[in-house]
Amino acid sequence: MKISYNWLKEYIQTDLIPAEAEEKLTLLGLEVEEVEEIGSDFEGFVVGEVLDVRNHPNADKLVLCDVNTGEETVQIVCGAKNVAAGQKVPVATVGSTLPAPMDDGSYLTIKKAKLRGEKSSGMICSEVELGLGDDHSGIMVMKNNLKPGMPLKEALNAEKDTVFEIGLTPNRPDAACHIGVARDLSAIVDGSLKSPYHSVPEPKRNLDDEISISIKDSDKCHRYVGLIVDNVEVKESPDWLKQRLISIGLRPINNVVDVTNFILQEIGQPLHAFDYNLIGGKKIVVQSFEDDKKFTTLDSIERTVPAGSLFICDGNGPVAIAGVMGGENSEVTEETTKILIESAWFEPSSIRKTSKSLALQTDSSYRFERGIDPTMQLKAARRAAELIAELSGGTIYEGFVDEHPVKYEPKTVPLRVARINHLLGTDLSEDRVVSILNNLEFETEMTGEGALMCTVPPFRPDVTREVDLIEEVGRVFDYNNIPRPDTAPFITPQPLADSEIFHEKMRAMTKSLGYKEISSNSLLSKKEALLLADEKSHVDTLNPVSQENTTLRTHLAGGFMKALHYNLNRNAENLRFFEIGHVFKKSDDSTWIEGVQEHVHLLLGLCGNKKQTDWRGEAESYTIFDLKGDLEAVLNNLGISDRISRKTEGNHKLTYLLEGTRVASLHIAHEKWLKGFDVEKDAFVAEVDLTLLNNLGASRSDITYQPVAKFPTFEFDAAFTVDQTVRAGELTQEIKQTAGKILKDVSVFDVYEGKNLGENKKSIAFRLTFLDSNKTLNIRDVEPVVQKVVQKLEKTFGAKLRS
Amino acid sequence: MIDKINEIKQEIEQFNIDSDESLEAFRLRFLSRKGKVQAMFGLMGDVPNKQKAAVGKAMNEVKNLAQSTFEQAKEELTSAQKKTFGALDDISLPVEPAYTGSFHPLTQALNQIKEIFLRLGFNIADGPELEDDFHNFTALNFPKDHPARDMQDTFFVRKSDDENTDDLVLRTHTSPVQIRLMKEQAPPVRSIMPGRVYRNEAVTAKSYFQFNQVEGLYVDEKVTLGELIETLVMFSKLMYGSDVKYRVRPSFFPFTEPSMEMDIWWENEKGGQWLEILGAGMVDPNVFEAVGVDPEKYTGYAFGMGVDRIAMLRYGIDDIRLLYDNDIRFLQQFES
Fold this sequence. Notes:
The structure holds 2 protein chains of 2 kinds. Chain A is of the alpha+beta class.
């Protein structure tokens, strides 16, 4: 919302320079988001009369002019073609500076000069040079009745102004106008508010013969005031009015419409002017309809207005969409001679609904939907009528219509001074509080020791509770003035949540393994989401920002694959990423919201070359075993390796189970994924469910020191021949279970397949490491255990020991 | 005399020792009893007394040089016999720096914020990103027809006209965690709530449909606005330096009353400007009512800030999309 500082100063006497006013308004809660300097005071510029124009003896394109500037007649060299004797023109006298910058951004100061040998004392200006318009075809020619020597500022009715763009918060409808902003400022500066609005005396007669007004939907329209001005001449507004409107970015239209706009910007009361002669049946009915209505607004657009919207109707039907925009059918035009001024109070949510459904926000709807002063209708209509009469030569009809089915009841709110100080941490006296509130036009009455009853002014619908009053006191006092405690006592901190510690531990651990953290979109396209999980587990948004982002991720793998696509397209070679984030699945196993599982996952992913080609040799690509090693390091670091079992699912996936619950998976990215995400290199993905691990107690690492083994380990190698279908993982698991505690570690040191082993056979060589914390082991201790293992593997897997 | 000494010195320096034989030849020529060094000292008698000190010093230097050259060559010959020095043993051969892990700039900014509030005695709480209407709007004092409840502003997962079925939304702020926290735990409560939030916004350099927030909440019997401002000032000083220039000004949020925003002065090439860094206020009594906390007995403050914005300011990132593109050339710049 734009506020002109010159305009504002009509209502409050203040010496504040614009920058000071800007700061004060911002600190009052009317944040000035932008400041624009407009216009000029034209110091040293006067109206000149061209007395004589002669050819320049030394230049074809220049002429010599004798110009009367009031006090003297000077010679000015001029290059404009349209200059002629007898004209009244704007003259920049010697020493003045042009208000508009030149092409290089600097400002020209006029000096006495000789141009091609002829004296020139001043400059006759074009509109462009004065910063008044775009016309640079020649000098500006002014009205002929102006007196030579008159200051240009006066002749043009021009002044320098500062325009503030205020970011109005929704709780401040009162400040959506110049008087409202001036009122706030008046609360903190010396100088009281001057308002041109006065109560209107009861008329001697009414307007019944001229117009009847009825409100059918009084829930949506609490008040409707009508006033009539006759014999108006619709024409261009005077300069002062045009200038006011132009300064805040409005386009002047005619003296009637401009006055209604002026009143809206002055006091915040939207008005509408109808051409009285276009109102059918001499009546106005305020009503809503049960059906959608087609209606052409005064911007000549036919709109479909939804059922329930409030209309202003005449005897024939709608003539305006209440509070939003008038209709083309009753618009004030140059032919108009008699007008009906509407000044009403419409219910905010009704206007908001209509404005929103039409996607049409006007200066009028903006104010109605925030809530305007319910006591201002008649006063505003009267001021408008007076101004219109003055500017158009019209006459105001005696009397008015004031339909007022819902009367305004002033609100009273109790306020305890002690509560103010308790909440703000201040030490304000009762007097101070009363003075602040009174300056904001809240009436106060003492009802006891430190207790006030406050009457809320009608323009503050937002103030309904004690705490709202406390905010008023606080903002005028200025939050920056509130004394701050030297020490701020606070409660004994509690331990951090396990999940917080766990997630940060995992983040640090993964980084230490050399992974770079990524941050990918939570929302995937349907197609992408389908690659990761069945549709039945998808959680979709009803109103996606685009089809690329419809479905919440069920896994982090999608974001990783997209990051691969992005980077491989840009010729990245080595991609080693991790992410921690929320994933979402429809499930009966709800986490927070019924029917939805929302867990935190950790993703680790690899793609490309872990080493580039260099003098040491060829490039080396990542393999699934690089990722597997890192994933196992993570699980090992958590101290849960012993509780984990691994299960292969097909040839591309290994699942990790913690006591029977799937907690992690390791994937070779499937052809389907590579194609779906358009990734042209092998990719490897591991995803760990941190929520599950946390729930299963895996996040709590209670480290207790274990004495380092005093005795040496004993190693035993054994190779087995098995069918190709038997998995090394299964054998390893079986060995561990069979051998028991004495077995400290199992590793595979060789895998071999060859014809000498037989069809579809392979050999896997294990190294078993034994340890006893109480003695040095020898072959006699280990042999029975190895025997047991050999028998078990033979029985379960048909494994044959190779000697 | 000095010329003569220098001549021997030069000879020592230029002598090439590359075998046991040449090592022995070196010893014989310079260090043996009949060697040049010994012979050089023999000439001392001819030196005038005045110059004796200077010449003696120079001779000793040459002697030391001969000895150290011999010892070093001997050692190198011994080790060279163990391993021959090949082309690939050249330690000056270049290698690629090892691939290192890194945290995303959002994580780095968040970590700094967390660290500050942990020092100020706050705990850390979390909650779901998929929320119901009650936690995201109703309990936070959003009126029924508030614009944030529009499809234009908020992502809905379920929207129902049935009053018994709560709408589901992607949370538009981390404030619902305040509601969950206060429902779970009686005051005092002192916690921050970081997390990802969503708004239905087009993706541009300045806006994105997801971003990250940190909110804070402190509820106790005597919490004041003065204390809130003090906390925010402490935060700003720890985050932006103790000489940071700041101001607070009134603002509006449905869930706080009074409400305010904090600006800091940000220097730039045009001089500087006030930049809004956070919103804050005293918990609205209606919010307390919604979670069953007595607003007469307890007061509280809340504040919230955008992590993306803070990270962008901090690192001079001018396009928010960079934070979610995961371009490795971008991520590599944050390996600290």
